[in-house]
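User
New here, help please:
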Amino acid sequence: AIAFPYPLLGLAYAPLFRVLADSFMARTPNAKVEIQAMNPRMAVQYLLDHYNDTTASFAAILGRRFLPDEAEAMAKANIKPREYSIAYDGLAVVVPAASGLKQTTREYLVAALRSGSPTFQQLDSAAPSEPLSFVLPDQNSSAFALLRSLLPKDSGVVAPARYVSRADSVNTLVADGKGVGIVGWYVAHRDSARLRTLYMGYTDSLGRH
């Protein structure tokens, strides 16, 4: 049998899964894996539009669970997708490589996000008391739900922030000095030449934080 999986990937994870797909096809010559990268909302919609397509097996690989309106659309279409957790990502706070910020805590970060006029000193007590703004993933991104879970249920982000749909755009804007970014751990460490992550009490096996 020849399998034709067609993964629909969130943009942040496409490079990783392309490597995995190439490795799989090298070991399984009769298999063909085609990858299409798009934001998570588009991936879910594509899955809805092609659910009954019998020419391939479709899978949406997201960095989050279905949003309530997406689950409702699935139910209305009488679609019962199977969900699998295949990996876990986290959030990282990113700053330009030359930034004086060194570390923060989850509590300090939440307080800054909930402040209408946050300062760098709120994130790191050794930093100057200068105005702070954020660059954040928007509600369509994989990282948004995880970011939202940091905040109390009855509150949202109040701090000045610019929202973008692509994780790479967060990296670019932060590198250009447009604010402090919050982005997925995997994406944060793809651009170590221009960016640095703040220490928040956790270090992985390679010493990255």
Q: What stands out?
A: Strands lie at 5-10, 36-38, 57-61, 91-96, 134-137, 161-164, 180-184, 195-197. The two ends are 44 Å apart (CA to CA). The chain is about 30% helix and 15% strand.
